[in-house]
Amino acid sequence: MVALIVAMGFGGGAAGAVYLWVLHVVSERIGTGRWTSVGQIAVLAVTGVAVSVLIKLLGRPADVDLLVGNIHVSGMTDGDIEESGADGRDTDGRLRSLIPVSLLCIGAGGTLGPEAPLVTMTGTLATRVARRSKVDAADLRVLAITGMAAGFAVLFGAPLGAAVFALEIPHRRGLEYYEALVPAAIGSVCGFALSTVLGGHGLEPIWNLPGSDLVAGVDLLWAVLAGVLGAAIGVVFTVLVDLLHRVVSLIPVSARPVVGGVVLGALALVSPYALTNGEVQILELVSSAPLTTTLLLAGIVKLAAAAVALVTGWRGGFIIPLFFTGYTLGWAAADWLAIDHTWMFVAATMVAANVAVTKTPIGSTLVVTEMSGLALGPVTIIGALTSLVLTSPIALIENQRRRFDAYETTDSDLGANST
Predict the structure, then answer these.
(1) What pLDDT score does 305 carry?
(2) Domain tally for the chain?
């Protein structure tokens, strides 16, 4: 198991680094910043066509929701797999579709980020290796989470936060597969180290927020308000996704990526912040000193664009877009409230917005503080926990559930134990 855990870490780090390198190449060829407004809409529409063709040829891509389901119950299926008569192990084959589809969607400027495809890839590859190594069911789960942690570490450059995030994402009320904590941390550090050697994130914070090392006692109270604001962002996003799912159900499946591309291009006419996941845009906004109205528009458009991309089949993750929305709306609120230590409030809102959807309070706190500076820890955890309490009754990731000690639970048991 020790050898497999280390292998999952380095293997996940290598796979993640290669994925991000290819994504960079694709972005350089078809991404934003090189087209006119009309040209950008055309590129997104053509990308939608390509996505539809790839899905038709290769099948529906794997996704985090199914990966999370298989962490709980080996061989769990979704509707498409049930219709084909296959079991959850076909998730491995669905990487053939996920990788090219997600590279196109994200590289062309889609609003969702690489976190979901990358972690699905590393977690699924870890599961495949674990099965071939014939480990028992409990160890298979540990190795799958280890692979996920390595993927998160490559993307975020935050090894401790990545490990805890991977452990929290299968659940709605905190980490439950505690036995995987140390293996996940080992895999995360291995993946992060290899990615760093290969030219990924270095040891410096990714987001150098000015004055982020200043904390006052009153900021702990402001953090509660940041948690409320972040919770509101998460609720709006969840409700918007649900409403758009109902609208999109009226559109043929093959046409949805094309429609999504056109709508994303139209939203980019409203605000340039509609496209891309927002990681780089966060740094750009710090140096540009934007108006409050610009921040409000950027956050609202980004949230709407992420919801559109999610329901129309544009593959990617919503974690970084939620960070961006929390960042912009938190900054706008801090300006309006005349908060002295703006970045304390901003960081807490970033964490809270993501926690409201992913239910990962400790992991999100660690990720943002590692990416921005550890002095932010007290306010970000307060914002995270406030958001978690306020949004506990709602959920977007359907397969988040309580732990299963009996890993081979049958399908008939799923409904009774999924609350």
Answers:
(1) 96
(2) 2
